[in-house]
Amino acid sequence: MSYVPEKTIYLCLAHMSEAGIEQKYVKEAFDTNWVVPLGPNVNGFEEDLKQFVGGKNEIVALSAGTAAVHLALIGCGVQPGDEVIVQSFTFCASSHPITYLGAKPVFVGSEKDTWNMDPALLEQAIKDRIAKTGRKPKAIIPVALYGMPYDCDKIMEIANRYEIPVIEDAAEGFGSKFNGKVLGTFGKFGVLSFNGNKMITTSGGGALICENAEDKNTIMWYATQARDAYPYYQHTAVGYNYRMSNVCAGIGRGQMTVADDHIAHHKHVQALYEELLADVKGVHIHKQPNDSRYDANYWLCTATIDADIKVQGQENAYKETVKTAVGGAAGVIKAVDSAVTDCQPNDNVEALRMFMLSKKIEARPVWKPMHKQPVYQGAPFYTNGVEEEIFKVGFCLPAGPYVTDNDVKYIVDMIKEAIVK
Ligand SMILES: *Cc1c(COP(=O)(O)O)cnc(C)c1O
Fold this sequence. Notes:
Blueprint: H1 21-31, H2 40-52, E1 58-62, H3 65-75, E2 83-87, H4 96-100, E3 104-108, H5 119-133, E4 140-141, H6 152-161, E5 167-169, E6 177-178, E7 181-182, E8 189-193, E9 206-210, H7 213-223, H8 246-256, H9 259-277, E10 283-285, E11 294-295, E12 301-305, H10 347-358, E13 364-365, E14 381-382, H11 386-393, E15 394-397, H12 405-418
The structure holds pyridoxal-5'-phosphate (PLP).
């Protein structure tokens, strides 16, 4: 193997257009003094997004995907004490905003083929919550994990039958489709994220896809401190400061010119992994179901490694506590006393992560299911154990415009090297 990357190959990095169109829009914001959380770039970005999702929905650009989840819950009328059904296998931003509202998450497990919300478990959860509480959950949040579509047909059918609104968390599924229709346009609301590591970025930001102009108006009102129409500040509800900055939206407009290229590249990288990993025993790349309705964006490539496959350094896995956030995540992580928890990836997955890092490749565990998180102890959950099983054997691999064919070949070679024959 002669090829060695110059820099660490990260999971997914922000990637600007070759032509620097982002900077042109950002400069325009400065030149016209629209350095505020509204303005021509915000409007233009919303229009671009509207066209991107098919032209029939309305868009509100926001400061984060997490803010979009929060406002969608408010848009569904979620109140303190209400229950909201959410996919357990996800990033914490799908469920945390439920608790911001004093409402309670009810976690639903995943199906094997998509790793997303299992429709049978969803219906079981709805029935059981009605039986136990006498009330229907206020909303259902399926998540397009790593960009994979959930079974929109079944989930929407169940949600419609019980008349419960759906908030699609398509933060990772930007541009993924089901039956030719863009994710985020099936439910009452669709969440998008433009964080630095997502399919496209505004440095940080998000958007809420709304079904109609009335919902858009409500969301916009809550996103801008909920002011009533008086010459002074008059409030009849508690609002938020969640609007997207016109500077960030400029980056977004530039990114929209390369969004299709990004998605095509992610799919290309996935196809290459599928081809090259096909003959690696015990390692299984996660693919979309062999069903023409599914069209994943493959935001990250994910795989599993069988428990009986031995990886170099496995005996040293989890011997030391982690000192910095894995993957260089932003912010601060709280120091811990123990290197282990009662629910963690297998030793060979941790050994693979460490081995890959030593070869300048970022690999990461998959999301830890929310019903296994200490912060959600006691929350009701409905599962067959699928997501917990995947959490033990799953890992994420780099994808995105910065990942070259040579990188993918190198990554697969390093996986082969890590495995003890
Ligand atoms: C990234 C993400 C969000 C929201 O993200 P922000 O970082 O707040 O933009 C929500 N849900 C999922 C599943 C995500 O991956």
